[in-house]
Amino acid sequence: MTKKFLLGKTPFIREVDEKKTSTSRMMIDLLIALAPIIIFGCIYNGIKMFSPSSLPELKSITSFFKYLETLYLLVKPFVNVFSGALFSFSFELLYFLFFKKIRGFKNLLKETYYSFAIIPGIFIALLLPATAPIWMIALGCFVANIIFKMLFGGFGHNIFNPALIAYAFVALCFSASLNSGYKEIINLENVAGATPLTNLQSALTNSNELLSKDVIVGTYGSMWNFFLGTIPGSLGETSALLCIVGFVYLVCRKVINWYVPTIYVGTTFIITLIISLINGYGGLWYPIFNVLSGGLLFGAVFMATEPVTTPRNPIGKIIYAFSLGVLTPLFRLVGGMPEGVATSILFMCLFTPLLDRFTSILRANKPNAKNIIVIILIATCLVGISSYTIAKNVQRVEEVKPEVRPDEESFIIEVDGHNGPIKVKFTYEDDKITSMTPISHNESVAYSEPVKEAFETIPDALISAGKDFENVPNIVGASVSSEALKEAYRQAFNKLDTMLNNGYVTSDDEKILSVVIRGHNGLIKVKFEYNGIDITSMVVTENKESIAYSDPVKQAFETIPGALVEAGKNFESIEPIADATVSCNALKGAYRTAYNYLQTKYVNGYIENDQNHLLKVSVKGHNGLIVIEFSYDENKNITSMVIVENKESIAYSKDVEHAMNTLPGLLVSAGKNYNQVENVANASVSSNALKTAYGYAFNYLKGNAVIEKESDSEIIAVVKGHNNFIRVKFIYRNTRILDMKPIKHGESVAYSDAVKNAFETIPGQLVDKEYNYNNIENIQNATVSITALKNAYGNVYKHILNKALENNPNGLMLDHNTYGKSFNIVVKGHNGPIIINFIYDENKKITSMTPVLNWESIAYLPPVKDAFEQLPSQLVEAGSNYNSVDVSGFVGATVSSQALKDGYAFAYNYLNNENGGH
Amino acid sequence: MAFNKIKTLYINGRKNLTSNNEVIDFLNPKYIYIPLKGNVNFLPTVKVGDVVLKGQVVANRNDRFPHPIHSSVSGKVTGIKKMWHSSGKMVEFLEIENDYLETSCYTENKYDSLSKEEIIEIIKNAGIVGMGGAGFPTYAKYSSNKQVDVIIINGAECEPYITSDYALLKNDASTILRGIKYLMKASNASKAVIAIKKNKKELISILSDAINEFEGISLFLLKDVYPAGWEKYIVTKVTKKNYDGLPINVGAIVNNVHTAYSVAKAVEEGEPLIERIVTLSGEGLKKPSNIRVKVGTSIEEVIEFLGGYAEEFTEGYMIAGGPMTGKSIMLENLVITPELGSVLIIPKKQKQKELSCLGCGNCSTNCPVLLTPTEIKLAFEHNDIELLKKLNVNKCIQCGLCSYVCPSRIEMTEYVGKAKVAVERAAPNK
After folding, report:
1. What pLDDT does A400 receive?
2. β-pairing, B90-98 with B75-84?
3. Are A261 and A321 in contact (CB under 8 A)?
4. pLDDT class for B150, splitting at 50, 70, 90?
5. Ranges A131-145, A648-662, B149-163: which has the least confidence
6. Smallest Cα–Cα separation from B397: which of B250, B230, B248?
7. Per the CB 3.0–4.6 Å rule, which of A72, A359, B27, B211 could disulfide with A315?
8. Under a CB-based contact definition with an 8 Å cutoff, are residues A392 and A333 in contact?
9. Closest CA to B38 of B88, B73, B78, B81
10. Using a CB-CB distance cutoff of 8 angstroms, which residues of chain B are in contact with residue A18?
11. Confidence tier at A401 by pLDDT (50, 70, 90)
């Protein structure tokens, strides 16, 4: 018999031998499952470059070299994947050649093939963006194949998923160049732009805006784009659909277990759903977004199932997948890398041997108490982690509410000193001035001892003198400064006195007004509840009146408040009670203060809220408050105007009804020409109110500061901030803003140091810089808030200058520094005031003329630019013959050039008429 | 509960090589061989040169479960020879030369009035052992005082290629059913089930007709999975109870189809265990068949009778038993013992060399007793006996599935088997 019987090992049939399975077939199946993703990623990322926005650039390509480069970029994704595979293969081949001493090319190829060398390379190419340079892929392949695979013992012995650890390595080393890529060759911003999750993370950390679907998802179209994969991201991770197709294929081919990806994705979904529900993000979009973005599906299907570095035991796999599901949202919310998938998988790789050991024992034995305790402990840890995640997140959302900053009890007075204005800050408590601090002046404290002494002693002396401040003696040799300080105190004293006599509003939290007024024996503090513009209740919270001794006074306090509220707008008709007239009048005064305050509060429109692209503005209508909601799009164009509340006589007047029904639509379609929308006859008050509100919203959204309230020393303006509106109070005197104080805003001062810093320092800086306010220092991570504050300042400054110019059409002197022989004037330009600085010599001849601040269209209209560049020097040169300077040459800039000429004329006349100024 | 579930896997049965063929008789071998050693030792009762009759006791089992072993032919003891035993070892056999006279020394029993004890005695004296592969003396299962609710007749044949139980059931269902009746009587069990795989449609129709005449016997259909024929799997499925130790703990006794057949033969005709059907199959044979042979026949004679090997067969395995659990035999002088149900000739077709474990966990996922072979292998390589005990390596039934599914072609079953031995060896010292 020639038959040979071998000594074999049981079992004698193997799936491998029947070609039902094999390690190499699993790897080939993996590649087959990846193929659609690779092809889609390549085609999508290649073609994306030829999107409409980059077409002009492509058309402008002329040189052959540039043309080749563009072609190269088109096939770059293919090149990436191919070179990834090639590099990985070559590195391992070389390793086998030099370190394992394998000889013979065929043997080397076989060895490298059975080490499945190309897989990490392909994954690296897929994990990196399409713009990643080739050298970076080569480096990644080296790190993956040599350092984290071969040096750990080769295939089957590596601890970390080689592709993922290489990706983490590259991302850590070159995060900057990962984002820039090939931008210098062709504008690829639309290819490698910020990924959705980087947006999510920055939305979470840099602002406290309530997350909204519009912001996070809307930027990329709709959730469908996430599902299909037409969003920015790395080469392979974006298409959820193709990942699911790959998943189904791999499960059918028994390459991966169905439950690992399912549990992973499911846990992430549930945790983010809980986060969404607790935080009120509204519905399922947040969990779906979390599942579809950041390569979660790619990671779950292709990375979390990578066999070598994941547990072998089914229970281990389940715990592993569950932990990944918990850790991914955690890392996304609190971690440094936005996607969270790579981090959590790498983290869990470390636990694979531990999980295997523990679960193998667990699975082979009947469950006993100890095992159950361990499982419960693990579950508790994981649940603890997730609750921490959720709690952390909730905390952030709580901080989101707009902050009400109590108005500090202080005011600023400016008086003229010897060398210019002196700005003094006073604080007060009840009816007493408690401190007096000169905050800026040009007096000669550095040269003159008496002046120094005056500034050091007089404020304190005035404070301690109180109402007898007039007796405080002036300092000899500094009488002008002393007198100026005394004048400042006098003004402050009188101002406080007037305020107390008339009553003033100390706080307004949109429901309750607090008013202080002087009574017979001291201050009376009253709280008014109100709804819209109607006062609904009046409660005296503090008083020093003789209620205990005098029945009339007692009666007054018991009945008058009710009567006043009852009388409403006819409150003036309430008669004082005999023997308690002072108290009665004080109460009436308080009511009057509140009444007038509310009557004027909404006249120019009043912003209530601005979040989630929804702007709420109240305005005073005919019968009461009209509350309107505007929604607006990405470009801040108003898309709808909805009246949510009103008291107008719709039921009685057809005209009013018509106005309320049609005007919003007309206004929205009119857009910037809203002012030309005609009022509805017999409903002009309502019509005007709607127009006012629309104008408010329109200007606000255009980034302008909207002035809500204005008096001769105070302006309250509102400007759009990063998270919500910012309401700022300005104190001004003539043409100078003395103080700027944000009184209500929703910016992230509570947890962003940058924003907090900005709100503390920027207003002061703006006030100090005056017309140079544009040059304030920027603070990183608070740019939006700073721009908003700057806009507020600029707009209000422009407004008060315009107002001053109305009375002085020829121009206005702002300040004159006689020592520096320079002065600033303001004249009316085309778009707003123009501030010009002049310097003159001993002969009062103007030697320099510099426009320092203007709103003219220099950036858009070349003639205007020319006028601003050429005219000042021409005028200075012409000197007294300035009138002969021809301005007609600046066609299209006549107003601006004439303004400059007027400015020169004003300066020239000023110098020559004033005999040296002062 | 998930922890106690027995994992199973579908394996291609390859049964059509033999299942549709008629059973061939080969009852006149030149020699038969009686094992003197095997898994257990036997003491011969005859000497070289003695003349023996068919059915004569020629050896006795020499341990806790004594029973006789009979000559299946009449003839002369010609010597003691080293041959291959189905347990995969070469052992000494008593060689008996056939005189082809078939002179038997047993007579028909009167079975109508037999008591429980008498049946057990008949089974013991007929030398009937578990013919499904274990070779455990059948009477020992019935000697327990514990309550028996159900007799389970295992006809699952979950390993590929093997169809001997199938052929027997198809050809002689009524004898088997009568044998089951005797077993029920021997155990006082009120019911019995025949467990077969649900894909054996022909068998199901034959049996469901036949069992109508027998009260208390029913069919139990198993999924076409491996290891559906594992005793614990069947008992758990039939009784719906989990148990440790022997099936008797949940009131069940499991016997093979062949065993039931031999019981009927012994009770009715007084014939001891001297014949069985063996599946000779595999791609290496010219004519794979089920063949009725005398117990003790050398496989060499049988293969010759069947026309030898397939022409393309040059190198491969001869397997005593099924492909999943059987032993490879290196020479053709394998002796057919009562527990040997199949001999396979399979050509070598290794498609892939052994690679590093890629950690897919298929071995663990498919393990019927929920072990994790990769961890066992690690612990074994580190000689960590304590850890091996914790990993419960003793539970391994050596079904071979872990090696079967391994994509890297690692000899997992072998590692686990070695680990099991290591633990058993270490046990007395502890």
Report:
1. 38
2. antiparallel
3. yes
4. very high
5. A648-662
6. B230
7. A359
8. yes
9. B88
10. 12
11. very low
User: Which of A277-281, A442-446, B271-275 has maximum average pLDDT?
Assistant: B271-275
- Nearest-10 crossing angle of helices A134-141, A64-98: 10
- Choose among B325, B361, B413: nearest Cβ to A313: B361
| Rounded CA separation A880/A577 (Å) | 71
Q: Do B416 and B402 meet the contact criterion of CB atoms below 8 Å apart?
A: yes
Q: What mean pLDDT is reported for chain B?
A: 89
**Beta bridge mates, A853:** A835
Residues A651, A656, A662, A664: is their CA dihedral positive or negative?
A: negative
Local structure of A443: helix, strand or coil: coil
Tokens for B395, please give them: 């539970």
Q: What are phi and psi of A208, to 5 degrees?
A: -120, 25
The pLDDT of residue A233 is: 63
What letter represents residue B63's amino acid?
Answer: D
| Nearest CB to A364 within list B315, B372, B409 | B372
ipTM of the complex: 0.87
Strand duo A638-645 + A625-632: pairing: antiparallel
Option in B316, B351, B407 nearest A26 (CB): B407
Give me the count of residues in chain A.
918
Residue A77 has pLDDT above 70, yes or no: yes
Task: Report DSSP letters for A491-535, one per residue.
Answer: HHHHHHHHHHHH-EEEEE-SSEEEEEEE-SSSEEEEEEEEETTEE
Q: Report the gap between the CA of A745 and the closest CA in chain B (Å).
A: 57
Contact A12 B319 (CB under 8 A): yes
Helix, strand, or coil (residue B236): helix
Q: Look up residue A635 and give its two tokens.
A: 């470009």
CA distance A532 to A537: 13
Chain A CB contacts of B406 below 8 Å: 14-16
Most confident of A879-883, A901-905, A912-916: A901-905
**Beta strand pairing call for B289-294 and B252-256:** unpaired
Cβ-count burial B187-219 (b if 16+ within 10 Å, e if not): bebeebbbbbbeebeebbeebeebbeeeeebeb
What residues of B are in contact with residue A310 (Cβ under 8 Å)?
A: 359
Are A731 and A738 in contact by the 8 Å Cβ rule? The answer is: yes
Q: Give the number of A-B residue pairs with CB atoms closer than 8 Å.
A: 180
Contact A23 B390 (CB under 8 A): no
Using DSSP, state whether A687 is helix, strand or coil: helix
Distance between CA atoms of residues A728 and A723, nearest Å: 15
CB B97 within 8 A of CB B75: yes
Q: What is the pLDDT confidence band of residue B135, given thresholds at 50, 70 and 90?
A: confident
Interface contact flag, B324 A24, Cβ < 8 Å? no
A731 phi, psi to nearest 5 deg: -110, 130
Check CB contact under 8 Å for A156 and B355: yes
Specify whether the CB–CB gap between A213 and A282 falls below 8 A.
yes
Preferred mutation among A360, A371, A372 to probe B, highest tally of B CBs within 10 A: A360
- Mapping DSSP onto H, E and C, the string for A291-313 reads HHCCCHHHHHHHHCCCCCCCCCC
- Three-state DSSP at A383 gives helix
The pLDDT score that the predictor gives to residue A49 is 62
**Residue B19: strand, helix, or coil:** coil
- Closest alpha carbon to B273 in B418, B98, B130, B66: B130
Strands A736-745 and A403-404: antiparallel
Contact A18 B357 (CB under 8 A): no
Q: How far apart are CA A900 and CA A893, in angstroms?
A: 11
- pLDDT higher than 50, residue B104: yes
Chain B's closest residue to A357, CA to CA, is B375
* Burial environment of residue A24 by CB neighbours within 10 A (0 to 12, 13 to 18, 19 or more): middle
